[in-house]
Amino acid sequence: MTTELNYTAAQQYIDEVFTQLKEKNAHQPEFLQAAEEILLSLTPVFEQHPEYITHNVLSRIVEPDRIISFRVTWQDDNNNVHVNRGYRVQFNNVIGPYKGGLRFHPSVNESIMKFLAFEQIFKNALTGLPIGGGKGGSDFNPKGKSDAEIMRFCQAFMTELYRHIGPDVDVPAGDIGVGGREIGYLWGQYKRIRGAYEAGVLTGKTPGYGGSLARKEATGYGLVYFVAEMLREKSESFLDKTVVVSGSGNVAIYAIEKAQHYGAKVVAASDSSGYIYDPEGIDLHALKDIKEVKGERISTYLNYRPNATFTPGCDAIWSIPCDIALPCATQNEINGDAARTLIDNGVKFVAEGANMPSDLEAINLFLDNDVYFGPAKAANAGGVATSALEMSQNSGRTSWSFAEVDGKLQEIMHSIYTESKEAAEKYGFAGNLVIGSNIAGFVKVANGLVSEGVY
């Protein structure tokens, strides 16, 4: 009887918080999707920790500390004036300074910023490093812009952002549309305004001026290290497995590189124009030349490998039979139909390299059909973990070797997997890494909120 009463109280509390959240944020579907995915996992936590209800930690966690929205005015090469909107969502700093990337993409809006920042809270908590959750960006589109235009936009963006960030306050990094070039322009403007060398205020810098070795590779490598743990759990390995990877940015490229290193055959990759299928295995040198050197569309891969095929549009990439699927492109790229196709074609492992690339229907289908599923907040945490390692190097005025950083990354991904697995088992959901990672990250933040009291 007591258990039933506790369950009812816990579930009622979660339902009430989510109902209020939907009423306040009815126009923000991405944020509500991210919140629902986590809240659905937490009933057993509140059953065992009624003090979380007493301290109303859920209502406190789902409301960001602050949302900063600002105008970014810049001039193009023809002296035409343009106006974009910039954001920084500082969601939660219980564990450490706000930490999360900046995204420059036309799709950026407040809902997407909040969903990414909310996910970042728990992803960062899982790393075991002292970093809180935040995210930012702009609806500026860097595609088709000259270097000078991108520089002027970044300078205008940082001219507002600088007053809200700092090495012990909020530490942005890169994301979609923001790579080493953009971080360099942002960092240069921050230094000019502040008149100080505060290297720890931005991560993703180029090695040689405060950046960390292995940062570019970290998310993709970390994803594969996490999947290696998943495979080991089932007494399997990457050797001779067929892998489909979506995307062709840093995450996808370096996931492909490390999966191939472990003996897998990766047969597909994509960009926003479509996807390539190479049944003999992706030529990584060709893919890097196309994307990292020339900046061309992925269809030019056929110039290197004429036996490969290119298909316009990205949805059908998940119709390619594979043992392992690694979505590394963007949010909600795998829906229910795509998940059914993957399952029908025999996929056994799915792990998310992008942020929230599988919708709730797809996730439930994977879980219900014995597909071992690695959620983004656990599987792609290698990038932010290495960003935090960059912060440590900046604080100590030192630089670690590639092998040192990579070794620490492997340890962190092993720890994330172990904590997620054990949390799932502790709360009665053995084998469910979605619930396990949600709970493992949430409990760390909730304990912090309880310990610091109400303010």
Automatic annotation (TrEMBL):
Single Gene Ontology MF annotation: glutamate dehydrogenase (NADP+) activity
Site (Important for catalysis): D175
Residue numbers binding NAD(+): T219, N250
Binding residues annotated for substrate, in chain numbering: K99, Q120, K123, G174, S387
Keywords from the named record: NAD, Nucleotide-binding, Oxidoreductase
PROSITE patterns named in the record: GLFV_DEHYDROGENASE
Keyword NAD attached: yes
Active site, UniProt feature: K135
Top-rank taxon, per record: Bacteria
InterPro entries for this protein: Aminoacid_DH-like_N_sf, Glu/Leu/Phe/Val/Trp_DH, Glu/Leu/Phe/Val/Trp_DH_C, Glu/Leu/Phe/Val/Trp_DH_dimer, Glu/Leu/Phe/Val_DH_AS, Glu_DH, Glu_Leu_Phe_Val_DH, NAD(P)-bd_dom_sf
Cellular component, GO, one term: cytosol
GO biological process, one term: glutamate biosynthetic process
Domain Glutamate/phenylalanine/leucine/valine/L-tryptophan dehydrogenase C-terminal: 212-453
Family, per entry: Belongs to the Glu/Leu/Phe/Val dehydrogenases family.
Subunit structure, as described in the record: Homohexamer.
Name of the protein: Glutamate dehydrogenase
The organism of origin for this protein: Caryophanon tenue
